[in-house]
Amino acid sequence: MHLIHHDQEQQEISRFLLKFIQHNPGDEYDLDYVVRTIPDLAYRAEIKAYPQQSPEWGMLYFFGKNYPGPPYGQDIDTSGMHYSMPCCIIWGMKEPYLSDKILDSFYKWFDQSVRVVTLPNAGHWPWRDDPAKVNRELRSWLSALEEGYL
């Protein structure tokens, strides 16, 4: 999240979230816009139907409380974003919501090992876009963890 305070590209990518950060229960929002980046049309329809069948206030409350909005340019305390366990991050390089620049900072967040796997043809939901590769990478990481390599 620190990236958004100091990176214009991330601020521009995140501009669409501002209306969700400020959302109040009952406010209208454009579901077609929300699901626009899901390439699988059947899954897109499923995700679009979900907020219509379940209360959306939880998701939108999360954005409002956890995602930083303007004013940007602040130095925020990220000490709570430091973890003492091994981690495997599987990142879709077609991620539409977060800048790839964040990849450079993952190693700072973990005391132990962090494995970052990038999938060139996956987006925000890599397990949907390339499930075989995600499963293979997770199995590999879990095996290395179990064998004490991480």
UniProtKB/TrEMBL annotation:
Family matches, as SUPFAM superfamilies: alpha/beta-Hydrolases
Cross-referenced Gene3D superfamilies: alpha/beta hydrolase
Gene Ontology biological-process annotations: antibiotic biosynthetic process; monocarboxylic acid biosynthetic process
UniProt xrefs under InterPro entries: AB_hydrolase_fold
Protein name: AB hydrolase-1 domain-containing protein
